[in-house]
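Issue: copy button drops trailing tokens. Both records pasted manually instead:
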Amino acid sequence: MSNKTLSFRQIFNLNFGFFGVQIAYALQSANISRIFATLGADPHQLSFFWILPPLMGMIVQPLIGKWSDKTWCRLGRRKPYLLVGAIIAVLVMLLLPNAGSLNLSKAYAFLGLNSAMWFGLFSLIFLDTSINVAMQPFKMMVGDMVSEEQKAQAYSTQSFLCNAGSLFGYLFPIFFTWIGISNTAPEGVVPDSVIWSFYCGAAILILCVLYTCLNVKEMNPKEYAEFHGIEEKADKKEDNPGFIKLLVKAPKTFWTVSLVQFFCWAAFLFLWTYTNGAIADTCWGTSDVKSADYQAAGNWVGVLFAVEAIGAMLWAIAIPKFKTLRGAYVTSLILGAAGFASVFFIHNQYVLFLSFMLIGVCWGAVLSIPFTFVTNALSGNHIGTYLGLFNCAICLPQIVAAATGGAILKIVGGSQAAMFLVAAVLLLCGALAVGLIEERKNN
């Protein structure tokens, strides 16, 4: 691989669109359980609403990677998919929070279904899929255009920007409540504070993505081959292996990092699913989704997730200073486990700042370190496809956690706060699995 060094501005431009994408992702992760609870979902069913989005991600991401690996056009290699994903995400963000306000009862009455909830569910599927389509090209472009020596810096910058975006997304609902927009609504209708948050997030998303597309020029096939020290393929058909063949040839690092990812993403799925109910119970003493206290807890979840984002931003700066990536990874997961476990025991909304700062440390590592390991272990061939397949290590644990969340919730006595103890155990398992990762390049 070439040792060509990029300036900080070039790395920044390459990743800036992630700021907008992550605002959309933050709005989704912090508000989806709140939205579906408002629409009438039972707490034991909440985790099921998170199954379809990662399932779609497992299908879409490898395809986006494979298709973009073969795409060389005037717009670039990855940027066409980035633009399409962003446009679809914007459209869905304008519709999703209005699920309870649209008059859809007649459309689903003959099926006996809750029309608002079904509309919201399908909107969530499209939103998560489109966000992933817009998100993945950023990871691929770093793999395409950044040298091995700068990968940790580039992915840490990406982690910093995406958590800065999260900070805005998490705080939008409480900000709009503060300026006087209603944070309550009639039964089955999402509050205006959440609706306007999604509107603003959609506008920022498309502006940030356009900034990156206008300020980043991707390599042509010849430049790419020279940069990665590989041969430019004259016959594209001969260089078109299937997913199974690529997985068989995947470096060991691909699989060991995937194992660690399994534990991490299962833990964070529980965070996104149960935080609202847990905090409403432990700090506000309510489980009534119609109450003002429950909606106030929903706003506070946004504040806590913002604290998490601050922790992740600060930790992203610290990660490159560790002597080894494995040391940074293990430290991050152990601190994250401590943060998760502490949520169960804390009943003061302000003391939870410390818990979510530690959770943010773990999140900052999860967003950057795995991709540094994997892209450094790959040659320049099929980076997009491999990163698409690696996304399955993000999606699969979410599906497993979503499918089993309701059963685990029953085992722990129906306490949503107890699910944080389960997440802590998962992260400790991930920390142990880090020892299997070989920190070296494998061509």
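Record 2 (pasted manually too):
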Amino acid sequence: MKKWSIIVLAVPLLFFSCEENEDVTMDQQSATEIDMSDFYVYTDMDTELFNKENSGKKKNCQSMVVLNRKLKENPGLYQKMYNVEKHTRKTIAAKKPTGTPGGGNGNGNGSGDGDGGNDPGPYTGAVSIPVVINILEDFSGQVTLAQISSQIDILNEDFNNKNPNTSSVPAEFADRVANCNISFGPITINRKISTKSSWGTNDSMKDPNQGGIAVTDPSSNLNIWVCNIGGGILGYAQFPGDPDVAGDGIVIGIDYFGETSGPYGDGRTATHEVGHWLNLRHIWGDGRCKQDDFVADTPSSDRSNGGCPSYPTVHCRTTDMTMNYMDYVYDDCMYMFTNGQNDRMRALFADGGERVGLVN
């Protein structure tokens, strides 16, 4: 969507977040700083209107709803996420040759020169993320090894631009398709039989005292909890910057993990939630036309899309990138990340990044 710039201010400014009574102090934005004036965290994702409009119609990702709740419960979370965003923007701005998010060299594979003085830009090497899969199932083997293997294969396809459907990307977006050069494995599997029919979204599946399975070293692993979430919820993720170390990872409903059946049975819920875990917002910015996902090469939109939309689908006077993994369309109809999204994820692996432990 819109690009950011490095701004020079005559005097530091005091500004406010969109959170009520949430001040951002003067030392956060001094002379020669990254523009953070558009930063937001709280969204309308849990409003009555949103739930009424989207009930039963689209992919039900609860990441932003869970984030809204956590922001209310933990006043310090806003500042943590602000810091992650500021580091992300500073890292991307240092990328050459353009110095702007999504500019780069256009190949999307993290192979740019990375020369940005003291801030070398997003991490440029191959990334391999170990995965711990924590399964809470009704009976032993409910989640099959084939299901697990298919899910890892799908993640590796999607984050390495090997989804066969990517050939259907419209010419308008073809030069924005990213090979993120991120792979997943080795894999550790933890299983536990549980009679609990619905775990909800309060992270109880991550708490052994509530019958769940504890996180495994989240600084060095992607933790995936697979369970019956309930409420038609496909999954949710914890964003980088959340100080709740015990909750760091993603949660996927059993029916949507790996190759199963139905329109959300091709494993793309995990791709979508890992995107959140690597600091991507929903492609439409969870707001109206001026709300942003902080990525320069994704078009503006004022809504999510469901099903398999026809091309072009136009909102906010631009063509929606409905095939992006961070929309809500059916699994077979999402098949790309952009170069700008790739930069944003890779900023987490750069020095000072929130997930640098995964590459060190």
